[in-house]
Amino acid sequence: MAVIDRDGKILCPCRKCVNVVRQNFQIVQIHLLQHGIIATYTIWHVHGEPRESNEAYHHDIPVEGNEVLGGIDALVEDRIRGESTNTTQEEEVRTFDKLLNDAKREVYPGCTNYTLLKFVIEILNMKVTNHWSNKSVDMILEFLTKFLSKDNLVPKSTYEAKKLLRELGLSYELIDACVNDCVLFWTGNATLDKCPNCKASRYKTNHGRGKKISRKVLRYFPLTLRLKRLYMSRKRAEDMKWFKEKHLDDGVLRHPADSDEWKEFDTQHPKFALEPRNVRLGLATDGFNPFGNMNNSYSVWPVVLIPYNLPPWLAMKDPFFMLSLLIPSESQLGIDIDVYMRPLVEELNELWENGTLTYDASTGETFYMRAALQWTIHDWPAFGDISGWRTKGHYSSYTCNDEPYFESLKSKTAYSNHRCYLPDDHPERRKSRAYNGKHEKRKRSLVIPIEKIEEQLGSVMGVTYGKHPSNRKRPRQNPNWTKVSILYELPYWKKRRLRHNIDVMHVEKNFSENVFGTMLGIDGKNKDTDKARMDLEDMNIRKELWLKTNPDGSYVKPRASFSLTPKEREGFFEFLKSVKYPDGYAANISRSVNAKNGRLTGLKSHDYHVLIQRILPIGMCGYVDKKINTTLFELGSFFQDLCSRTLKRSEIEKLEKRIVLILCKFEKIFPPAFFDVMVHLAIHLPRETILGGPVQYRWMYPIER
After folding, report:
1. What's the pTM value of the predicted model, to 2 decimals?
2. Pairing state of beta strands 61-62 and 593-594?
3. Chain-wide mean pLDDT for the chain?
4. 492 and 345 fall within a common domain
5. Do residue 485 and residue 550 come from a single domain?
6. Integer CA distances (angstroms), 384 to 44, 500, 687, in order
7. Crossing angle of helices 626-642/685-692, nearest 10°?
C-alpha cells in the first residue's frame, strides 16, 4: 500500500479514522489534535516506518529461506511451537496447517498488507478500543464483503471472526451460577436445573419457547494457556527468567524477588525454586459498574492475575495482566466470592501439583512449568471478602487480630492508642494529658500473628454461601472471622506471612480525606463534629475544646488550632488553583476546587496521593501553627519514602518507627474520632513492605486504570 496516494492523501492514524480512512495532511493534523493518535500505534508501519518488531509484544521468527514471520504471523508460529505434546501428532499437524494457512491467506487477491488472521485480530481490536457493538461490526463486515471482489475471505459476522481466533487459545468458558451465589453449575452440578441449596431456578422463565437463558453467568478465562504463551516468544521467555539470571542481589528492595516472602518461599519449597521458569502470581480484584451509570445496580468483579517473574519495567504493565474471572453481581459479593473462585483455585492447584508441559522459545526445550500464588491485592472492603476477616467493628484490623487497642466513642470506634507501639522507656508513654488522660503501659508488636490466625481458623465452621434469605443471619466466628478462605486449599497458602495486602493507595486516599475534611471543615468528611467534642468531654481531656452551653440552651463550638477560618480556607483554595504541575504528574486539581460551598469535589485517588505528599504541607504554611505544619511535612515525607521505587531494609525499619511517632503527634492534634481504621492501617504498611517488597507491585493503581 502506497504511503501517499495519487490525490496526495495518507491514512489518518487518529482514534476516529484508525488508519482506515485517507485524508489530506491538513485534515490529518486537525484530527490528531481533536481526537488524539491511536494509543497502540507506536511504529508507523503504514506510513513508511520499518516494521521492526515491537519488543514489547511480538518478535520476528526466521523460517525457511529469507522469509521472516513477524507480528501476527510470529504469534501463530509461537502458538504452534508452544502446543503441548499431550495432544496427538495428527491434531498438532491439523492445528498447525489451519493456523499457518490463515496467517498467510490474503483477505482478497492482491492484498499484500493484510492476511486473514491479521485482519480479524485488528478488526476485533478496533471493536474493543472504540466500543463497537456486535451489530455494528456485523454491518462493517457485510459492507466489506460486498465492497471487495467476490473471492474475498472477509468473515460474514462477528461470530465467524471470533471463531478463527479460538485456536490461538484466546477463548473463555461460560459457567452458569446460582442467582443467589450459592453454587456454580459446574462439574458435579453441571446437569442441574435448580440450585441444590436454595432451589432457585438456573434459567429464566421462557415458557418452553426457544433456548434456555441462564440467570447468572460466570466468565472464566483458563490460565494455563496464557502462562505458556509467555514462553512462546524468545525475548519474553528471557524476561521471565530475569529475576534469577540478571537480578542484582545487593540488599536493595526493587522487585518482589528481594522481599522476605519470596526468599522464604524459596526456602520452604526448594524444588519449585530450583526451576526459575516457574511462575509467581499476584491476584487482584475490585468491583465496578461497567456502564458508568450509578443508578444501575449491576456491577462486575474482574479477577486479574499478575506474573511477577518479569523485570520491574514490565511486571505491572497492563499487556501482561491476565483476566481470569468476570463475576457478575448486583452488590458487594462478600464471602460468596469463594463460590466463583472455585475454577481458578482448582487450576492453580493443578499447576502447583503437576505443572504443564511448556515450550521455552529462548532455549528450544520443553519443561514442566508450575505456578504459585504470592498474595492478593484489593481495597479494604474486598480484603474482608477475600480473606474472610470482617473489616468492620472493634476488631476490623486484621494484623491486630483479637487484641486491638480502640476507644468506644459516642460517634464511632477509634483506633487512637498508638503509644503502645513505642519502646517501653519512651517518654511519650508517660504523657497522659496530651493523649487520653492515661499512662500507656501496654505493649504491642507489629508482627502479623500467623500462628494465632491458623489456630482461629481451625475452629471456624458452619459457613454457608449464598444470598438466599435463609443465609442472611450468618453466625460470626470468634473473634471476627466469617469463613475460611478458599485460597487455603492451596497447599502452600497456610505458611504465607503476607497473604492479603493492605492497599497503600486507599490508605493514602482515606488518610488524606480525613486530614483535608477536618482541617477545612468539609461536610461529610469532617471528623471534628459535635459528637467528637462530646467524646473529649467524656474522656475528660482538652477542656478548651468542649462544647460551651449558653443559658438559652444553644451551644458554642470553640475553634480548634487545626481548623481553618472561612477566610483562611479561601486562601488555601486560591493556592490550590494557582499550583501548576509538570505534564503527566497530576490531574488539574484546581478544577475540583469549589470555593463557593467550600468543597473539594471529583478528586481521584492519585490526586490525594499528590496532595498529601507534596501540596498540603506547603499550602498550610501560615494557616496553622508550626507544630501542626511540621507533622504534616513528616506525614508527606513518610508516604514519599514508602512509595519509593527502591528501598533498603534499614530504611523501612526507620519508617516503621517514624509512622508510630507521626500518629502519636496526630493524636495530640486531632480528636479521637479522626482515627478510623484506615488511618490506623498506615502503621502496618512498612512491615508489609519488608515482607512483600516495593508498594508499586502491591497497590491498586495499575489495576484500577
Report:
1. 0.78
2. unpaired
3. 83
4. yes
5. no
6. 47, 10, 20
7. 20
